[in-house]
Structure formats: structure tokens, C-alpha cells
Specification:
single chain, alpha/beta, FAD/NAD(P)-binding domain, 5-stranded parallel beta sheet, 25 strands, globular, binds flavin-adenine dinucleotide
Length: about 375
């Protein structure tokens, strides 16, 4: 009997949306399909818990999901490499290990790139929060430096969104927890207020807490260049620092657009409500790398929510069945930790803060990771 070669399903990136699919594949890999996950790292660090790790609330294992483990349990292949391009004429993924991997279906959940293109010197003289593994590797050096410092140690965090604000609070708390005095933390953002994308009252709560803890907020300042010891802005005086972190938001990787996939103006892959590329039906995408027809902010909440629909539709596509539409919820609950065992919640126009918010966040985050760790 002639051997019929398996069809190839490639999953690029072990992001929030793919985790759901990897779990669903356990014992149920589609017949006649060979499935491979391509990821530069054998684990996925849950970004929602990263500030808690910085603050010292979590060990790294608490925040890590083993992608190799998920693949083993699903009985699928794991390729430790990075996708660097797509050849859509041949249906191949180009990888950093030099391989070209053929596919019949490909699903992309590779997350965002750090938004650094408008900020000269950021990769040389600052510590970008993404890629997260790079941040984790360089974080101990920052701790060593502030311990060795004899005069005040000035930390500047560039960015005004939730990630920047959480990290700033986490750093401030970590220094205090380690008994290191003289670590001063300043957040610099192009928005007038911190957490500008959340409820106005959440932003005011953040501002109030920053002031109460002696931290500084410098709003309405667009950083254009980072030099070895100072930041330069579009307007106004330079800001000196001892250490600078950058959490300026999400940019698109260059290779989806370069491959000829339809993208939005920023380069994110345009998908319809079934999470299928609007230009290439053999391509699915979800999470921050995708531009859904119902535009939503780039956030882990929406990436997780997309996961169930993505898993349904990838499996349906493998079986030649009909796809279902996914309409993202209008609002998401944002929980911003403040490093001191408290957090700020923001839902639409409403907000709240306190110890109980942190307890909820901790419970939700640990529960999410545990679901994939077992
Ligand atoms: C410090 C911090 C805190 C945050 N907190 C929250 C929060 O509390 N709530 C919230 O909603 N959002 C939060 N976010 C935003 C959230 O992290 C992102 O929106 C979310 O990670 C997007 O998920 P994703 O599935 O698109 O990609 P990711 O979670 O980024 O995963 C992408 C994966 O793909 C891999 N990858 C990357 N490039 C390639 C490639 N070329 N080939 C193969 N694999 C690749 C990566 O290694 C990674 O494993 C936070 C972000 C940060 C930085």
C-alpha cells in the first residue's frame, strides 16, 4: 500500500492562545496530521506574573509553563528555534536553525516585538522588558548594581502602560524588601498620566500611590534616544539614570508583512472572525501578532480568550469542518499589581484597589499557570 504522507500543522510560538490548543491536543492530535511547535525557548513565562517575580512574590518556576512538557503530553514535536520568515508560494516557514519547514496549515502566536524603533540606543543602553527571557537573564545584573551602589541609584522606567507601571512598583518594592536604600524610581511616559488606557480613576489611583511611595511620574515626555547614562526627549532636558528599563508597548514583527500576508498599517496580521488570515487561508493567527477585525487592545486577556476559538478552528480546519466565529468581549478586566501585596483593578469606567485586588489577581494568575503545568 502506498504511504500517504502526513499533513503538516506548524504552530509558531507558545503564546497565550496556543497554550489552549496544546492542552486540547492531548491524546487528540488530528489523524493524518503531524503537529510541530516552533519556539525559541522550551518554556513560556507568563507575563502577567513577571512583575510579581521582580517584586519577589514568585519564584521563576511559579511563572513558567513547560512547552516541551505540553508537547510531550500532546504527542507532538517540539522544534527549538525561531521563525524568521514565511514562503507562502511553497508553504514553508524559514527558521533560525536553517531549516525550511513545510506546512499545510500554520498558526502564528508569536506575540509582539518590543516597540523600540523610535527609541535609539534602547537595546544597547537600556533593559527592554521584551523579549522576556532576555529581561530575565539581565535582571540579576541590575540587582547586583544597585547593591554595589554607594549613592542613590536612579532607575527610570520608560512607558506609561500597565507593564511599565507594574514593573516600576515591583522594582521599588524589591529594593525595599532587600533592604537596599537609595533606589529611586521614576516612570517616564508620553501620556499625560500613567495607565492612560484604563479608567481615569485607575490612573488617579496609580498616581496617588506613586506619590505616596515617593516615586516619580514624568508624563507628556516622548523619549527619542537612550545614551549610556541619560535619556533624551523630543523636548525638554535630558534625564540621567543609573539603570533604564523600557516597556513601551507592542510592535509587529517584520516577517509576516514581508512574506506578503495582509497586515494592518502597523504590520500585524489581519485575521477574520475565525482567526484566519484574510489573505491566505492556510494561515491562522491570534494574540498580539494578529489584527482582529474587531479591534481590541494588545493584551494577554484577549490573547487567552482567542485561544479557545483558535483551538476549535485549527482542529476543524484539520478535519475539513466548518469554522466558528469569535467576537472578542468589549471590555477586559485589568489587574495592575503595585508590588506591595496590593493591586489596582480597572473595568471600563470603574476601578478599585487594595489587598483584596491582589489576592484575586494572584489567584487568577496562579490558576492560569497551574492549568498548564500539571
Ligand atoms: C511585564 C508585563 C506584564 C503584563 N501583564 C499583563 C496583564 O496583567 N494582563 C494582560 O492582559 N496583559 C499583560 N501584558 C501583556 C501581555 O504580555 C501580552 O499582551 C501577551 O503576552 C500577548 O500574548 P501572545 O500570545 O500574543 O504572545 P506572547 O505571550 O508574547 O507569546 C509569544 C511566544 O512566541 C515566542 N516567539 C516569539 N517570536 C517567535 C518566533 N519568531 N518564532 C517562534 N516563536 C516565537 C515567544 O518566545 C513566546 O513564547 C503584560 C506584558 C508585560 C511585558
Amino acid at each position: 500500500m502506498r504511504h500517504v504522507p502526513d499533513k503538516q500543522l506548524l504552530l509558531l510560538g507558545g503564546g497565550h492562545a496556543h497554550l489552549n490548543l496544546l492542552r486540547r491536543l492531548r491524546g487528540k492530535a488530528p489523524k493524518g496530521w503531524q503537529v510541530t511547535l516552533v519556539s525559541p525557548h522550551p518554556r513560556q513565562i507568563y507575563s502577567g506574573m513577571l512583575p510579581g517575580w521582580v517584586a519577589g512574590h514568585y519564584a521563576l518556576e511559579d511563572c513558567a509553563i513547560s512547552l516541551v512538557g505540553l508537547c510531550e503530553r500532546a504527542g507532538i514535536a517540539f522544534a527549538q528555534t525561531t521563525a524568521t520568515g514565511l514562503d507562502l508560494a511553497r508553504d514553508e516557514v524559514l527558521c533560525a536553525d536553517g531549516e525550511r519547514r513545510r506546512f499545510d496549515l500554520v498558526s502564528i502566536d508569536t506575540g509582539p516585538e518590543p516597540a523600540l524603533s523610535d527609541l535609539l540606543g534602547a537595546t544597547d543602553h537600556a533593559l527592554p522588558v521584551r523579549p522576556i527571557e532576555g529581561f530575565i537573564a539581565r535582571w540579576p545584573n541590575m540587582q547586583r548594581r544597585w547593591k554595589e551602589h554607594t549613592r542613590p541609584f536612579e532607575v527610570v522606567v520608560v512607558g506609561s502602560g500597565a507593564a511599565a507601571v507594574e514593573l516600576a512598583f515591583a522594582i521599588h518594592s524589591r529594593a525595599a524588601r532587600e533592604g537596599v536604600s537609595g533606589v529611586r524610581v521614576c516612570i517616564v511616559g508620553r501620556d499625560a498620566k500613567p495607565l492612560a488606557d484604563t479608567a481615569g480613576s485607575a490612573s488617579r489611583r496609580a498616581m496617588h500611590l506613586l506619590q505616596a511611595r515617593g516615586m516619580q511620574w514624568c508624563g507628556d515626555r516622548t523619549a527619542v534616544q537612550i545614551l549610556p547614562r541619560c535619556i533624551q526627549f523630543e523636548r525638554g532636558a535630558d534625564l540621567p539614570f543609573d539603570a533604564c528599563l523600557v516597556a513601551t508597548g507592542a510592535a509587529a514583527p517584520h516577517w509576516p508583512r514581508a512574506a506578503g500576508l495582509s497586515t494592518d498599517d502597523a504590520g500585524f496580521i489581519r485575521v477574520d472572525r475565525t482567526l484566519r488570515s484574510v489573505s491566505h487561508p492556510q494561515v491562522f493567527a491570534a494574540g498580539d501578532v494578529a489584527a482582529h477585525v474587531d479591534t481590541r487592545p494588545k493584551s494577554g486577556v484577549f490573547a487567552v480568550r482567542a485561544g479557545a476559538a483558535l483551538a476549535d478552528n485549527i482542529l476543524a480546519a484539520c478535519h475539513g469542518a466548518a469554522l466558528r466565529e469569535w467576537r472578542p468581549q468589549r471590555r477586559a478586566l485589568y489587574l495592575v499589581s503595585t508590588g506591595d501585596g496590593r493591586a489596582i483593578a480597572s473595568w471600563g469606567a470603574l476601578s478599585a484597589s487594595g489587598r483584596w485586588v491582589w489576592i484575586c489577581k494572584d489567584w487568577i494568575d496562579r490558576g492560569f499557570v497551574r492549568r498548564y503545568q500539571e
